[in-house]
Design goal:
The chain is of the alpha/beta class and 537 residues long. The chain contains 18 helices and 22 strands. It is globular. The termini are far apart.
């Protein structure tokens, strides 16, 4: 408790200093020519709640965008289904797995130092540095034209970026963190540093509106309230109201854009980085593995002071496993190979680790649904009662299973014809599996595990469980989360409207990289040979 109070005091000092520094004069690029683009990123949007609110007529501003453009009902976000990491496909038209980062936390064995990568906290600036230099982001494609982002740390190339971190942190932890409650009780701080959720989002939108005077080519705002509320409370009673409030902020912005005469020349995206699930049980994998004789290390949830590398490989010499939690319902597990931490183990190594089968040991832990591992060129998806093998070729992806089907595709009328046979391309898989419990799972898993930096084992939680007990600094245990493959976590709505976009066009499903490719084409920057397929074609 004393340590947490000290860390909280440090966090307050850093946040207040950042708040003061943010008042400095903002950088401004050259005024842009149309078309312009504004991206409304709703962090942690439940597709089911969104659909209910839309059907009830409670989201008139989003409905207007749907009527004027393209609406994807079951959009498939990135895997891991994560903030920041999941922004990159919208900016490039590529799958997030080839961005150079693999989530918010991961282990990079190839670095000389700073092998454990974490972009949560003061190290969030590292994400832009770790991204691959090509392709260019949507911010970088327009030379010196002005652009602005609010609450995004995956924003390479943006001229002006603002983070309202302490405002939404104070709102998130009100009633859970003594510092937030203390600030609320001090009148001089209440408006600035203890805001309501509506005040948090209105502040961000007003910054964006003021920036219209600079003629921005691209603007991006992340609405943080749905995700932060859901982590602490799950899909509680206030969640639908937050979705309605975000819709109101969209209307607030568009009224201001129309008043300036720049609404008709603007492409709008209303998107989300991932969904969210409620949960009521929390698993501490470090303790569970320790009880089985496996020494595991788990990094801090938030980096408060460091501005660079966290650890070297040598720092993990005494451990068998390094855990990198992503979204609290998915975790990478990196395992020390027989030759040390510098090389990845084989599946055989992990199934006979000091006389233990790590896959079997993990599946015995209550709350774990799948354990995913490379097996040579293939990928294996283990469940308690079956195992699937995913193979990749130049013609697509093949899915076969033994025992019970881990993804349940064999029981689905549309997906079953693709199971157990030959290879099928990504488009066939996304269309066939969009309404299954694990949409696009075959492709998302295969592409992730093809990256050397992905976990040696990828663990996902069962419904109602998270993998981050006692992890969060001030709340302790979450009641909502994401990161995994299940439909509620990975399916979100996508809307794109504006000049060059056909009206009232509806798609049952599409991937987030398809939306990114669509945006670039609408801006006259049609990307060549990317994973995403433009929905304009």
């Amino acid at each position: 408790m004393k340590r947490r109070r000290v860390l909280a005091a440090i966090a307050v000092a850093v946040a207040v200093a950042a708040f003061v520094w943010s008042r400095d004069e903002a950088p401004v690029g050259a005024p842009a020519s149309p078309p312009y683009v504004t991206i409304f990123m709703v962090d942690g949007l439940s597709r089911s709640v969104f659909a209910e609110e839309l059907a009830a007529g409670n989201l008139p501003n989003v409905q207007r965008l749907i009527d004027d453009g393209i609406y994807v009902e079951r959009g498939v976000s990135s895997f891991p289904s994560m903030t920041g990491y999941g922004f990159w496909p919208l900016q490039t038209g590529e799958d997030a797995v080839v961005s150079g980062v693999l989530g918010l936390r991961w282990l990079d064995r190839e670095r000389a130092q700073g092998n454990f990568r974490s972009y949560v906290g003061s190290t969030n600036v590292e994400m832009n540095l770790d991204l691959v230099p090509e392709p260019k982001t949507v911010f970088e494609r327009f030379g010196d034209a002005h652009s602005m982002t609010i609450n995004s740390y995956n924003n390479r190339g943006a001229v002006h970026s603002v983070k309202t971190g302490f405002k939404f942190t104070a709102a998130k932890y009100e009633g859970h963190w003594w510092v937030a409650d203390l600030l609320e009780a001090i009148p001089v701080f209440e408006e600035e540093l203890s805001p309501t959720w509506e005040e948090v989002e209105r502040y961000a939108v007003d910054l964006l509106v003021a920036d219209l005077a600079n003629g921005p080519k691209v603007q991006w705002v992340t609405f943080v309230s749905p995700d932060t509320y859901a982590h602490v409370n799950g899909l509680g009673p206030e969640y639908p109201g937050l979705v309605r409030m975000v819709d109101g902020m969209v209307g607030r912005y568009r009224e201001a854009a129309a008043a300036r005469g720049v609404d008709d020349d603007r492409i709008y995206l209303f998107v989300s980085d991932h969904g969210v699930e409620s949960l009521d049980r929390n698993v501490q994998l470090v303790d569970e593995l320790g009880a089985r004789g496996v020494r595991a290390w788990r990094g801090e949830a938030t980096v408060l002071l460091s501005t660079g590398a966290l650890d070297t490989l040598q720092a993990f010499a005494e451990y068998d496993v390094v855990m990198a939690i992503n979204g609290n319902l998915m975790s990478y597990l990196y395992v020390r190979s027989p030759s040390g931490w510098a090389t990845a183990p084989t599946l055989q190594d992990m199934r006979s680790y000091a006389g233990k089968d790590l896959v079997a040991e993990l599946l015995e832990i209550e709350g774990i649904e799948h354990v995913i591992a490379r097996d040579g060129a293939d990928v294996r998806v283990f469940a308690s009662d079956g195992v699937a093998t995913i193979a990749t070729s130049s013609t697509g992806f093949r899915y076969r299973f033994e025992g019970e089907d881990p993804f349940g595709y064999a029981a689905d009328e549309r997906a079953a014809p693709l199971v157990g046979g030959g290879f099928h391309d990504a488009r066939a898989w996304i269309e066939a599996t969009a309404e299954t419990p694990f949409p696009y799972g075959t492709v998302r898993v295969a592409r992730l595990m093809a990256q050397p930096g992905a976990g040696d084992l990828v663990v996902t939680s069962a419904p109602g469980y998270d993998l981050a007990k006692d992890y969060e600094m001030f709340v302790g245990n979450y009641r909502g989360g994401h990161g995994g493959l299940r439909a509620d976590q990975i399916l979100v709505p996508y809307v794109i409207a504006g000049p060059g976009v056909p009206k009232a066009r509806r798609f049952g499903t599409a991937a987030v990289e398809d939306v990114g490719a669509t945006l670039l084409e609408a801006l006259g920057e049609a990307p060549a040979a990317v994973a995403g397929r433009s929905l304009l074609r």
